[in-house]
Design goal:
This protein is α/β, with parallel strands linked by helices. Helix content is about 55%, strand content about 10%. The chain has a 5-stranded parallel sheet with strand order 2-3-1-4-5, sandwiched between helices. Helix 5 packs across helix 8.
Protein backbone atom coordinates (compact mmCIF):
# COMPACT_ATOMS: atom_id res chain seq x y z
CA UNK A 1 0.00 0.00 0.00
CA UNK A 2 1.06 3.56 -0.69
CA UNK A 3 2.62 5.97 1.74
CA UNK A 4 -0.10 8.41 2.80
CA UNK A 5 0.81 12.09 3.22
CA UNK A 6 -1.79 14.62 4.42
CA UNK A 7 -1.41 18.38 3.94
CA UNK A 8 -3.22 20.43 6.60
CA UNK A 9 -3.71 24.08 7.51
CA UNK A 10 -6.38 26.71 8.02
CA UNK A 11 -8.38 28.05 5.09
CA UNK A 12 -6.18 29.93 2.64
CA UNK A 13 -2.92 28.38 3.85
CA UNK A 14 -2.12 26.99 0.41
CA UNK A 15 -2.86 23.31 0.98
CA UNK A 16 -4.17 22.63 -2.53
CA UNK A 17 -1.28 24.43 -4.20
CA UNK A 18 1.31 22.63 -2.11
CA UNK A 19 -0.36 19.24 -2.54
CA UNK A 20 -0.17 19.73 -6.30
CA UNK A 21 3.50 20.75 -6.15
CA UNK A 22 4.34 17.74 -4.00
CA UNK A 23 2.65 15.37 -6.44
CA UNK A 24 4.62 16.86 -9.35
CA UNK A 25 7.94 16.78 -7.50
CA UNK A 26 7.55 13.16 -6.38
CA UNK A 27 6.53 12.05 -9.86
CA UNK A 28 9.70 13.67 -11.18
CA UNK A 29 11.62 11.48 -8.73
CA UNK A 30 10.02 8.40 -10.27
CA UNK A 31 7.28 7.65 -7.75
CA UNK A 32 3.76 6.71 -8.76
CA UNK A 33 1.70 9.42 -7.07
CA UNK A 34 -1.95 10.47 -6.97
CA UNK A 35 -3.93 12.85 -4.79
CA UNK A 36 -7.34 13.37 -3.25
CA UNK A 37 -8.96 16.48 -1.79
CA UNK A 38 -11.41 16.62 1.10
CA UNK A 39 -14.20 17.50 1.53
CA UNK A 40 -15.53 16.04 -1.72
CA UNK A 41 -18.41 18.52 -1.93
CA UNK A 42 -19.88 17.43 -5.25
CA UNK A 43 -19.03 13.75 -5.09
CA UNK A 44 -20.57 12.38 -1.87
CA UNK A 45 -23.84 12.68 0.02
CA UNK A 46 -22.02 13.95 3.10
CA UNK A 47 -19.98 16.30 0.93
CA UNK A 48 -23.16 18.00 -0.27
CA UNK A 49 -24.29 18.35 3.35
CA UNK A 50 -20.94 19.93 4.28
CA UNK A 51 -21.51 22.53 1.58
CA UNK A 52 -24.91 23.30 3.11
CA UNK A 53 -23.32 23.54 6.55
CA UNK A 54 -20.64 25.98 5.35
CA UNK A 55 -23.29 28.09 3.62
CA UNK A 56 -25.20 28.48 6.88
CA UNK A 57 -28.16 26.24 6.09
CA UNK A 58 -27.98 24.54 9.50
CA UNK A 59 -27.27 27.75 11.44
CA UNK A 60 -24.21 29.71 12.52
CA UNK A 61 -20.99 27.96 13.48
CA UNK A 62 -21.79 28.23 17.20
CA UNK A 63 -25.29 26.82 16.65
CA UNK A 64 -24.12 23.41 15.39
CA UNK A 65 -22.50 21.15 17.99
CA UNK A 66 -18.97 20.23 16.88
CA UNK A 67 -19.63 16.52 17.36
CA UNK A 68 -22.47 16.70 14.83
CA UNK A 69 -20.36 18.72 12.41
CA UNK A 70 -17.56 16.17 12.80
CA UNK A 71 -19.92 13.40 11.63
CA UNK A 72 -20.44 15.18 8.29
CA UNK A 73 -16.71 15.35 7.55
CA UNK A 74 -16.07 11.82 8.77
CA UNK A 75 -18.96 10.57 6.66
CA UNK A 76 -17.53 12.24 3.56
CA UNK A 77 -14.28 10.32 4.04
CA UNK A 78 -16.14 7.08 4.77
CA UNK A 79 -18.03 7.42 1.47
CA UNK A 80 -14.65 7.97 -0.22
CA UNK A 81 -12.89 5.07 1.52
CA UNK A 82 -13.00 2.63 -1.40
CA UNK A 83 -11.60 5.29 -3.76
CA UNK A 84 -8.82 6.14 -1.31
CA UNK A 85 -7.87 2.51 -0.80
CA UNK A 86 -7.80 1.95 -4.56
CA UNK A 87 -5.48 4.95 -5.00
CA UNK A 88 -3.24 3.55 -2.29
CA UNK A 89 -3.22 0.16 -4.01
CA UNK A 90 -2.25 1.66 -7.37
CA UNK A 91 0.43 4.12 -6.25
CA UNK A 92 3.58 4.52 -4.21
CA UNK A 93 2.36 7.75 -2.59
CA UNK A 94 -1.06 9.35 -2.12
CA UNK A 95 -1.15 13.03 -1.17
CA UNK A 96 -4.24 14.30 0.63
CA UNK A 97 -5.42 17.91 0.68
CA UNK A 98 -7.04 17.78 4.14
CA UNK A 99 -7.83 14.61 6.04
CA UNK A 100 -8.76 13.64 9.60
CA UNK A 101 -6.49 16.35 11.02
CA UNK A 102 -8.85 18.99 9.66
CA UNK A 103 -11.76 17.50 11.54
CA UNK A 104 -9.73 17.41 14.73
CA UNK A 105 -8.56 21.02 14.50
CA UNK A 106 -11.78 22.62 13.29
CA UNK A 107 -14.17 20.85 15.64
CA UNK A 108 -11.93 20.70 18.72
CA UNK A 109 -11.25 24.44 18.42
CA UNK A 110 -14.87 25.05 19.42
CA UNK A 111 -14.33 23.42 22.83
CA UNK A 112 -11.73 23.57 25.60
CA UNK A 113 -10.19 21.50 28.37
CA UNK A 114 -11.49 17.98 28.92
CA UNK A 115 -14.32 18.50 26.42
CA UNK A 116 -11.78 19.24 23.68
CA UNK A 117 -9.67 16.19 24.52
CA UNK A 118 -12.74 13.97 24.62
CA UNK A 119 -13.92 15.20 21.22
CA UNK A 120 -10.49 14.60 19.65
CA UNK A 121 -10.51 11.04 21.00
CA UNK A 122 -14.08 10.53 19.73
CA UNK A 123 -13.33 11.78 16.21
CA UNK A 124 -10.22 9.61 15.91
CA UNK A 125 -12.14 6.59 17.15
CA UNK A 126 -14.90 7.17 14.59
CA UNK A 127 -12.61 7.86 11.62
CA UNK A 128 -9.81 5.36 12.31
CA UNK A 129 -11.66 2.84 14.46
CA UNK A 130 -15.31 2.60 13.40
CA UNK A 131 -14.77 3.66 9.77
CA UNK A 132 -11.28 2.09 9.64
CA UNK A 133 -9.79 4.79 7.47
CA UNK A 134 -6.03 4.47 6.90
CA UNK A 135 -3.81 6.60 9.11
CA UNK A 136 -1.45 9.02 7.34
CA UNK A 137 2.22 8.16 7.57
CA UNK A 138 2.94 11.88 7.67
CA UNK A 139 0.82 14.97 8.26
CA UNK A 140 2.32 18.31 7.21
CA UNK A 141 0.81 21.44 8.74
CA UNK A 142 1.25 24.66 6.77
CA UNK A 143 1.05 27.25 9.54
CA UNK A 144 -0.37 30.55 8.31
CA UNK A 145 -1.54 33.54 10.35
CA UNK A 146 -5.30 33.98 10.37
CA UNK A 147 -4.94 37.54 9.02
CA UNK A 148 -2.89 36.43 6.03
CA UNK A 149 -5.15 33.44 5.54
CA UNK A 150 -8.20 35.70 5.26
CA UNK A 151 -6.44 37.81 2.63
CA UNK A 152 -5.46 34.74 0.62
CA UNK A 153 -9.02 33.39 0.78
CA UNK A 154 -10.23 36.62 -0.82
CA UNK A 155 -8.01 35.87 -3.83
CA UNK A 156 -9.56 32.46 -4.46
CA UNK A 157 -11.66 31.83 -7.53
CA UNK A 158 -15.19 30.44 -7.53
CA UNK A 159 -15.80 27.26 -5.54
CA UNK A 160 -18.37 24.60 -6.44
CA UNK A 161 -20.05 24.56 -3.02
CA UNK A 162 -20.63 28.28 -2.41
CA UNK A 163 -21.30 31.50 -4.28
CA UNK A 164 -19.93 33.58 -1.41
CA UNK A 165 -16.49 35.16 -1.28
CA UNK A 166 -15.96 33.37 2.04
CA UNK A 167 -17.93 30.57 3.69
CA UNK A 168 -18.92 30.54 7.38
CA UNK A 169 -15.51 29.38 8.55
CA UNK A 170 -13.43 31.53 6.22
CA UNK A 171 -15.32 34.68 7.16
CA UNK A 172 -14.78 34.26 10.92
CA UNK A 173 -11.27 35.51 11.74
CA UNK A 174 -11.34 34.68 15.49
CA UNK A 175 -12.52 31.19 14.60
CA UNK A 176 -9.67 30.72 12.11
CA UNK A 177 -7.19 31.77 14.79
CA UNK A 178 -8.61 29.23 17.24
CA UNK A 179 -8.34 26.54 14.57
CA UNK A 180 -4.76 27.58 13.86
CA UNK A 181 -3.82 27.27 17.52
CA UNK A 182 -5.49 23.88 17.73
CA UNK A 183 -3.57 22.73 14.66
CA UNK A 184 -0.29 23.85 16.25
CA UNK A 185 -1.10 22.02 19.48
CA UNK A 186 -1.80 18.84 17.52
CA UNK A 187 1.41 19.18 15.51
CA UNK A 188 3.57 19.82 18.56
CA UNK A 189 2.19 16.78 20.38
CA UNK A 190 2.46 14.20 17.59
CA UNK A 191 5.57 12.54 16.21
CA UNK A 192 4.06 11.96 12.75
CA UNK A 193 3.26 15.66 12.19
CA UNK A 194 5.61 18.35 10.83
CA UNK A 195 5.01 22.11 10.80
CA UNK A 196 6.03 24.25 7.83
CA UNK A 197 5.70 27.99 8.33
CA UNK A 198 3.95 30.02 5.67
CA UNK A 199 5.44 33.30 6.88
CA UNK A 200 9.03 34.37 7.35
CA UNK A 201 10.28 35.63 10.72
CA UNK A 202 9.62 39.22 9.61
CA UNK A 203 5.98 38.37 8.88
CA UNK A 204 6.23 38.37 5.10
CA UNK A 205 4.74 35.61 2.99
CA UNK A 206 7.23 32.91 2.03
CA UNK A 207 7.29 31.97 -1.65
CA UNK A 208 5.43 28.95 -2.93
CA UNK A 209 8.78 27.47 -3.94
CA UNK A 210 10.31 27.89 -0.49
CA UNK A 211 7.38 26.15 1.16
CA UNK A 212 7.32 23.44 -1.51
CA UNK A 213 10.98 22.61 -0.99
CA UNK A 214 10.54 22.25 2.75
CA UNK A 215 7.51 20.01 2.32
CA UNK A 216 9.35 17.93 -0.27
CA UNK A 217 12.22 17.51 2.18
CA UNK A 218 9.90 16.05 4.82
CA UNK A 219 8.26 13.75 2.26
CA UNK A 220 11.59 12.57 0.85
CA UNK A 221 12.90 11.82 4.33
CA UNK A 222 9.81 9.71 5.05
CA UNK A 223 10.07 7.83 1.75
CA UNK A 224 13.77 7.15 2.25
CA UNK A 225 13.06 5.81 5.73
CA UNK A 226 10.18 3.66 4.45
CA UNK A 227 12.37 2.28 1.66
CA UNK A 228 15.11 1.41 4.13
CA UNK A 229 12.68 -0.66 6.20
CA UNK A 230 11.58 -2.78 3.26
Amino acid sequence: MAVLIAIEGIDGAGKGTQAGHLVTALRQQGYRVDSLQFPRYGATTFGHAIGDFLNGRFGALNEVHPLLAAVLYAGDRFESKSLLLQLMQDNDVVVLDRFVGSNLAHQASKLSGEDRSALIDWIENVEFGVFQLPRPNLTILIDMSSEMSRELVSRKGARDYTDREADLQEADLPYLERVRRCYLALSHSRLDWRTVHGLSEDGTLRTIGQISQEILGHATQLLSSASGKQ
